[in-house]
Amino acid sequence: MAAETVVDGEGPDRGGERHLSGGGPLRKLPGPWGRLGFSRAGMLLAGLWLLALALAVRQAAAVLRLPRDERLVDLFAWTGDNGVLRVHGSLYDGDAAFTGTPFAGLALKPLTRAAEQGLGVVWTFGTLLLVAAVGAVAARALPGPVSRRTALFALPAALSLLVLSVPVRNTFHLGQTSILPVLLVLVGWLAGGADRRRHGPAGGPIAGPRGQAAVALAGKAQGVLIGVAGALQPATLLFVPLLWLTGRRRAAVSGAGTFLICTLAAWAAMPDDSWTYWVHHVAGAGLGDAADATANQSLHGALLRAGLHGAPEVALLAVLVPAVGWLALRRAVRYARDGQLLLAAAVVGCAAVAASPTAWQHQQLWVLLAIVGRVGRRTGDRLVWPVFVVMVMTLDGSALVPKIAAFGMLGENAVLLAALLASCVVPFLLREAPAWAAPQPSGPLSRPNLMLELLLIRVGYWAYSYVRGHAPDSRSLAEGHGHQILTAERFLHLDVEHGLNKLAARTEWLREAGDTYYTTFHFLVPIVLLGFLYVRRAPQYRAARTALSFATLLGLAGFWLYPLAPPRLMPGLGYIDTAHGPQDLSDPDFGALTQLSNQYAAMPSLHVGWSLWCAIVVFLLTRNRWLRALGALYPLLTTFVVMATANHYLLDAVGGVAVVTAGFYAQRRLARIRGTGNRTGNRTAGTSADGPDRGAAGCDRAAGSPGGRGGPAAPPDAPDGSDGPAGPDAVSGAASAPSPPGPPSSADRGAPARRD
Fold first, then answer.
1. Do the Cβ atoms of 682 and 738 come closer than 8 Å?
2. At what angle are helices 606-621 and 508-536 packed, to 10 degrees?
3. What whole-number distance in Å separates Cα of residue 709 and Cα of residue 697?
4. pLDDT tens, 174-205?
5. Considering only CA atoms, which of 179, 75, 62, 74 is closest in space to residue 118?
6. Packing angle between helix 625-644 and helix 508-536, nearest 10 degrees?
7. Count of CB atoms within 10 A of residue 353's CB?
8. Which pTM was predicted?
């Protein structure tokens, strides 16, 4: 297998290469940052490093500023005055029983003599250094060849994702040791790839006795690291057969031997505790929280949550665990031989998470490392797997699925599902596959990946609910803003809400119709329109959903910056809540809805904003006068309903119009930045799922070129084949006529393409 290189836009890196693994070289950082200058890439890189640093500082501060009894909970419970590591007796008895292996307890015992305050600071920053080391190792082991820009961006991106992930956050909070085994395994496993590149394939001839001795010593050292990791976290012993199956048998033997030596040493020092851990609790099963807790994302925990207990559960585990391990090892060997050693490690690590008796949150870091696998033959499909992994590892499982009972099990076992997919199911590409370096372009005329769209919609709705629920909800501030709005409306003679509310309150059919309209159409109509656009009008779908996303983000900013009490929650003004009845405004926690969401998120009115978005989409989709009339009536009727039900002021509706207008403007600006404006749309090669040539022809026909049968359509918005929003003409206006021929611009005269 040829050695990989770090590639730049025009060619390979001439500065030499050092390989950490068969797939990813241990790269020197390619060139000084000064080469980036003050370009957009340079600013983005600086911003990414600042983000990583800010996240790391925030995480450390979040731990250290907590009271003594709320930070590093497990560590201080074990090493404190009455901790199981300090007092005489069993490690696995008492309220704060030890959850690690006896060897881990033996290694932690010296910490009982450290000052508690100093230990907390040292432990926090030590954990931070371990996280940074894991990020550095992973970033430098990406399967090559990679571009110079990717090599520069990989490390800060990896550090940011690690610090944001639930396993790392949980490790910081509890004071666990779970980062160290991951680092030991990665260094031991990946370093073996470097040795094989320097000295030749395992079992092959090595020049001279010194070379053979170096290979033997390196293999033993790598095995020692993995063996120590197994003594700390037994599930990582699955890497020992991986070493054997990939031809690194010296490392496999030394790894198994190191594990036995460490375990027997702990057994000799603490025989009762060793018996309790390895025999009574079967490698730690049942220690700590209840095994059926949602934090335990192993097969054992999932079966217990499903209601299986006793012999049936044990029998099913006896089938599932070996099957998962066998499939994962088989796949990992394949990826290792392909040079993707980091992916092979992630696959086996995910299998270890699933097969372990208990896989608590701080032990699930392997799932995040599976993000390095490439999946999909189209550029638009490449983001599905990494987005899914990032969502699973940074958000709570309930944020990934709707709050419907049928989806509850998926939310409870989201991490386990990701681990099983990575270890046994997902068809990661091999580097020899044509789609590895040259995926089929997903142009602006192709339909976006449905799974990616659903993931983004779900996380977008979760963010919407989270920001709305956590926006400032000071009652005095919100009511003060309400009085400001009413004063402004009186000055402008726009204060019509009270009269409309009285009309609805005394007219039964109008009240019931308004309440039903308010609670139903807000989500139903936009979802139906988005579904229609996705199925029938893919280019328009891209632009429309981008504009709606921008508008919603601006609305969330309004909720946060200007908390506003709606008319129904303004005391002493006589407004009637037609949907929920009279409110006891003397009670600070009035209303059942207060427990569900922030009721002071009235400015802007996204009910009106989303209805206006629907009207614009309908107007641009059809020329039917009746449908356009219904579309125009929809935001007007919505404005009437939100005021008649005392949920919004008229100026809230104006705010909704403003954010939607800004959303479409932002979508147009983004399209122009990406090269899809009116001036460049007709000169840019369009791409589709069928290939660049056919996509370009399709765009020419849509633009009105000779021989085209279709009417005007949107110009492409992503000339590089990326999966971005459609051009502004797709939704925001009619397509422009083709530009007259003229001399090519400098950009058209053969500017070299860059490989990123």
1. yes
2. 50
3. 12
4. 988 899 999 999 999 998 765 554 444 444 44
5. 75
6. 130
7. 27
8. 0.76
